[in-house]
């Protein structure tokens, strides 16, 4: 069995993926894992309310409150160390994670992206922008990707992907709803695999041991 996952979540919005992960943990679908802190750059984020409802430390930490990028990064590392976190889940976090944090948690940070990477990723490709680009491209398949986080936007090794069909009459909003539903299935599954020690990482390659 892998070491217990002590997860720090970084999120900026409502936290629907965080809710899906919490429900999987509480249902016993994900074992050997717990969310130990939720950090948001947005003081009004619904995810902070969600965390408090579940008795999880909810922390507002914004770059605006610090004199420099390095001061902000040090503050985040202090928060992570104080919580005992050994794994970071990005769930709609609208800021790039500092390279120092990436190095400290190498191969222990994951993100979920609302498209099939490497397509429709990179700077500016977030939220509805992604779905608008997919529809404009004419592609008939989209989906969601869980990937490891490195120093570049959306370029870390892919852990899991799941497809959804793009219908002829889909709008960015209807496609977003379909992809989000997939995200709520895919992200808990990925966290479960990490918690069970079934994700094997060698350099930039990810291998998944046989799922139960």
Quick recap:
The chain has 212 residues and is of the alpha/beta class.
Would you spell out the secondary-structure blueprint of this structure?
Layout: E1 5-11, H1 16-27, E2 33-40, H2 46-53, E3 58-60, H3 69-83, E4 87-91, H4 99-104, E5 109-113, H5 128-137, E6 141-148, E7 158-165, H6 172-195, E8 199-202, E9 205-208
Parallel strand pairs: 1-2, 1-4, 2-3, 4-5
Antiparallel strand pairs: 5-6, 6-7, 8-9
Helix pairs in contact: 1-6, 5-6
List keywords for this structure.
two-stranded antiparallel sheet, seven-stranded mixed sheet, 212 residues, Rossmann fold, 6 helices, single chain, alpha/beta, 35% helix
Description:
By secondary structure, the protein is of the alpha/beta class. It is 35% helix and 25% strand. It has 6 helices and 9 strands. The two termini are 13 Å apart.
By CATH, the superfamily comes out as Formyl transferase, N-terminal domain
- The CA-CA distance between the termini, in Å, is 13 Å
Strand proportion: 15-25%
Q: Looking across the biggest beta sheet, what order are the strands in?
A: 3-2-1-4-5-6-7
Helices, by number, come to 6
> What is the CATH topology?
Rossmann fold
SS-based class: alpha/beta
What does the oligomeric state look like here?
single chain
Name of the CATH architecture:
3-Layer(aba) Sandwich
- Report low-confidence residues grouped into runs of 5 or more: none
Rg, alpha carbons:
17 Å
Tell me about the biggest sheet?
Answer: 7 strands, mixed
Number of domains: 1
Q: Estimate the mean pLDDT confidence.
A: 95
> Globular, elongated, flat, extended or rod-shaped: what is the shape?
globular
Order of helices and strands: EHEHEHEHEHEEHEE
Helix content: 25-40%
* CATH top level class name: Alpha Beta
**Strands, total number:** 9
